[in-house]
Amino acid sequence: MRILVVLTQPPLPEGGAAGKTALGLLRGLAGHGIDLRAIAAQRHFAVAGEVPADLPVEITPVAPPSSWRGRVDRYRRPRSELAGRFADRVRELARDAEVLHLEETETAWCDRGLATPSVLHVHYLVRRDRDLGAPWRRGFRDVLEQRRAERIALRTHRHLVASSPVVAEALGRDAPGAEVVLAPLTVDPSVYPPAALDGPPVAGIIGTAAWPPTAEAMRELVHTVWPLVRRRVPKSQLIIAGRGTDALGLAGPGVEVRGEVESAGAFLRDLSVLLFPQRRGSGMKVKVLEAIASGVPVVTTAAGAEGIAPNDGVTVSEEPQVLADAAAELLADPAARRERGAAALAAFAAAYAPGPATRPLAELYSRLA
User: What is the pTM of this model?
Assistant: First the structure.
């Protein structure tokens, strides 16, 4: 099968959530023997880095829209930054493809006018993640635009792929005429050597503070969950990392805020447990995928573990005290954390490594081609 994959960002080991999952996606599809080609948008905010040389990826620069053009397109074609020359190049490459894979809803404008069957992979749903807020606030227009773009994308595509059962259920309701296939996100395991888990008792959380659900989770962790942990394990330490986290004002007893780090994988390998009390946010959480790929046990909520089947490596609860007790047990007992870490790694290998995660996609391509 000849498949063209359209990416919002280049596939990079440290390329942010979109770049990391794109890398895992391409690794998995290549492993199924698919004749693969990809095109990735290179925008001004994309993380710098070199795409692995063995991947057939064309990087296409996308300039930000001019102010007047942006205002016009915002109402006519919301979130259509990739609908110009980038989409033209997609259509050129699609002439030789049997199936067009569109990764994330921003690429949904790229298959207009094409006869090639297309598949749209939906990572998350904006309407579940962010409220509109007050109309006079700056974020109102951005969230409204993203929601409109999401509705249009779902309405205009017959074959949808969901990253989690929660997303799949919502797609089934919102696009009843579409075929919905479940295929989890994945990351390249070669980027995540197994953690030793034999260091000092260190819990951690990593994420971009600009994303409201992540910032809310970090605040709850520091103000509610972490004091309960410290009562049981007084010498434990919490490390908070990620872009913008140093502006949240979260430093406190046993809490270190590192801000942006060079490598998420290296950060995770130094932890005893990923402690992530997220309350909202749809789709799989890449930080949780990275943790279990590294063999690091996870303590989180149902939202944090979305798309991950129950296993001994991931503890799930909505109660702060239960989260704190589970984290404290792992921080105090190196043997317990190694056992739970091994279970997390086994779960990743069985269901979320590139091969098994992309198998539903390969099967869908085969039907369409």
Answer: 0.94
